[in-house]
Specification:
This protein has about 80 residues and is an alpha+beta fold. It has 3 helices and 3 strands; from the N terminus they run βαβαβα. It has a 3-stranded antiparallel beta sheet, covered by helices on one side.
């Protein structure tokens, strides 16, 4: 039986005070997800009807190559 492995590069920055767009500008990368401290957690509100807010800002980037790629360096350069 063959074992499946996933290869990817991932960068997660959180707890900063600036707007996430400033991180995007500095990194010159398009994140796949950003959150701003104090923003409503929409899916939790929709499920529970109670307002919950993100406690920290975050900026997340992940390589866009397929996860079944075998060369980590390709993900980093992507």
């Amino acid at each position: 039986m063959s074992q499946r492995s996933e290869t990817y590069a991932y960068l997660w920055i959180e707890g900063f005070l600036c707007d996430p767009s400033e991180i995007t500008s500095l990194m010159q990368l398009d994140p796949f997800e950003t959150r701003k401290a104090g923003d409503l957690i929409q899916d939790r509100f929709e499920r529970t009807g109670h307002k919950h807010f993100w406690p920290k800002s975050s900026w997340k980037f992940r390589s866009r190559l397929p996860l079944d790629g075998t060369f980590q360096q390709s993900h980093i350069q992507n």
